[in-house]
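User: I'm curious whether this sequence folds into something compact or stays loose and floppy. Could you predict its structure so I can see for myself?
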Amino acid sequence: MSKELISIVVPCFNEEEAIPFFVEEMNKTADSMSEKYGVEFEYIFVDDGSKDKTARVMKKYADK
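Assistant: Here's the prediction. I'll summarize afterward.
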């Protein structure tokens, strides 16, 4: 039996510094909910025209 999937859509504008913190905190929540309820999470980051390195940071997490 496959686990239910919860998708978290995250719009980002100049968030290169915040993304790592977001992922770290969300992973804690996702791990806890996965253990308790048997669900899986995916994060969908959407770059909204950032002028910083947001896209590069998002790609780093996508490669993991």
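Summary: The chain has a mean pLDDT of 92. The chain has two helices and two strands.
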